[in-house]
Amino acid sequence: MATPQVHHLFHAPIADHSFSSDKQTLAVARENNVELYQASGNKFSLSDELKGHEKTVTSVDIAPNSGRIVTCSQDRNAYVWEQTPSGWKPTLVLLRINRAATFVRWSPSEQKFAVGSGARVIAVCYFEEENDWWISKHLKKPIRSTITTLAWHPNSVLLAAGSTDSHARVFSSFIKGIDERPEPSAWGERLPFNTICGEFLNDSAGWIQGVAFSPSGNALAFTGHDSSVTVVYPSAPEQPPRAMLNISTRLLPLNSLIWNGETEIIAAGHDCEPFRFQGDENGWQLAGSLEKQNAGAAGPREESALNMFRQMDLKGQTQVDTKLKSTHQNTVNTVRAYEEANGQVSSFSTSGVDGRVVIWST
Amino acid sequence: MSQINYRTINIDKLDPESSANFPLETLLPATLPQSETSSDAANVATQVRQLLRGGDTEGALRHALDTAPLGGDDRAKEVHLATVIEVLQGIRQTEMARVLEGVCGSDGGAERADCLMKYLYKGMSASGSSGSKNVSPQVTGSGFSQVQARNVSEGGGGQQMSVLLNWHEKLVELTGTGSIVRVMTDRRTV
Fold first, then answer.
1. Is A216 an 8 Å CB contact of chain B?
2. pTM for the complete prediction?
3. What are the pLDDT digits (tens) for A43-93?
4. Nearest 10 degrees: CA dihedral of A332, A333, A337, A343?
5. Among residues A240, A242, A282, which one has the least CA distance to residue A262?
6. Minimal C-alpha gap between A144 and chain B (Å)
7. Which positions ≥6 away from A10 have C-beta within 8 Å?
8. Cis amide leading into A90 (omega within 30)
9. Which region, left, alpha or beta, applies to residue A342 given φ > 0 means left and ψ of -120 to 50 means alpha?
10. Please, what are the domains in chain A?
11. Where do the WD repeats lie (chain A) (predicted)?
12. What ipTM does the predicted assembly reach?
């Protein structure tokens, strides 16, 4: 396991980050703007800023093929940014929501994206040629509270959403003329818009912070504020799931998770380090941290006598213990696959409140 | 016209879309056990006391946690809280670690640990006001009267608090911070 590659971009929280498919551009949501960083050697340097939102940007996503960037913000708007010779040009999306937009992700087909919001709706947005704008259709029922997180099924029709009403749900976001009719799966056969293909609640409830479909799309994992990860295996349409496995951990809550193949999940959150979960339909367990033991702060360093007395003088203590042992120095908000092939993630990236983006190898 | 003070109108009550009208019962899982009454809880209390008298402290704690009235009414919960605290106080400090291992290490132990953590926090919040005398049939009053009661019975509450804190320390060693977080999220209250 190679040492993680740390990019300390600035001293402010990163709400969300996204790499372009060639890994040369890194988009980072910082306060009201999105900053674009360009790779130069081993470092990332600020190259551009996407300005337009009037409140905190909550989420950003770069489409891997088209290179379009979608952002959403607490100002209730979402923009699609396209690169033109004169710079990045935003297009306003008609979201029709009256609360903050909280989360946005492109569908794998890149024809649509979904925006979660505090208005208890998910806006599924697509491009309308005739009018030359992005419009949205709302997934409404039976959401009872703010949508905190979204994840797309590989078929670009099914959409998983986590909410502060403690439910993880799977919806159909099928839009005529945009989507091809999906193959029937365990989630459902006929999938008109707003079909509810699954609704899951943990025993210990808790806001859902992260959801993810497995690479095949035949399993769903979600994590919430109850410090647990739940994996759901659907059986057949309108039937209770074949298995719903809950792994309650001794950790602080996890915020985000990704699948690595069908038998491994990587999740990170308030414990500031990524954890590995392993298992299958018969049971899952926490396999441990991805942080190398005694990495990061590398234990107590050899301090010179001068340094020791200086510390005692300045701070009244011989050792500075304000640094965490983990690579991230604060809560991790987002975990994303960095390099993957056929569902196997060989490296992934995390970003958090400490202003760092870290690339880990699995 | 001037009689109505518009600033004091609670607009959340009038807005069906408001988050103040969130139905909390939707957070309860479908597997919630049958509702229990205080007499059921009293029966459990007798069984638990029998186990305690027989010296089977581990069995007593296990039984008390397995029969927690998660779906019961407030009275049943009060009675059961008294039972659990009685068990916790009846176990010596040197035995705590061993008992916890036994109760929380076996099959279904994680749930028992979470349940015990709920009782520890509930016990700490109720400590002093109703810790030892809450089997009495009177209805517990509003928050205000509880505050007064706490001030009056300072002595007994302090001792109970130290027992609960000891258990808390031992339990966190075993189950980590996750268990504390789950006390806050879980709507199946004890």
1. no
2. 0.86
3. 999 999 999 999 999 999 999 999 999 999 999 999 999 999 999 999 999
4. 100
5. A282
6. 7
7. A30, A355
8. no
9. left
10. 5-291+326-361 (2.130.10.10)
11. 50-82
12. 0.84
Kindly report the number of other CB atoms within 10 A of residue A294's CB atom: 9
Is residue A146's pLDDT more than 50? yes
CA distance B29 to B189: 12
- CB of B120 within 8 A of CB of B162? no
* pLDDT classification of A265: cutoffs 50, 70, 90: very high
Cβ of B27 within 8 Å of Cβ of A205? The answer is: yes
Tokens (6 digits) for B100? 């916890």
Query: Which residues pair with residue A340 across a beta bridge?
Result: A345
Which single residue is written with the structure tokens 């799977």?
A170
Q: Which of A145, A203, A250 sits opposite B29 (nearest CB)?
A: A203
- Cα angle: A177, vertex A181, A187; to 5 degrees: 130
| Residue A187: pLDDT over 80 | yes
| Residue numbers in B near A200 (CB within 8 A) | none
Structure tokens at B105: 């290490």
Sketch out chain B's domains with CATH numbers. 36-185 (1.25.40.190)
Q: How many CB atoms lie within 10 A of CB A51?
A: 12
Distance (Å, whole) CA A200 – CA A219: 13
Contact across the interface for A201 and B29, Cβ inside 8 Å: yes
Measured between alpha carbons, how far is B128 from B145 in angstroms, rounded to an integer?
A: 12
Residues paired with residue A144 on neighbouring β-strands, in sequence order:
none
CA torsion A253-A258-A262-A263 (nearest 10°) is -40
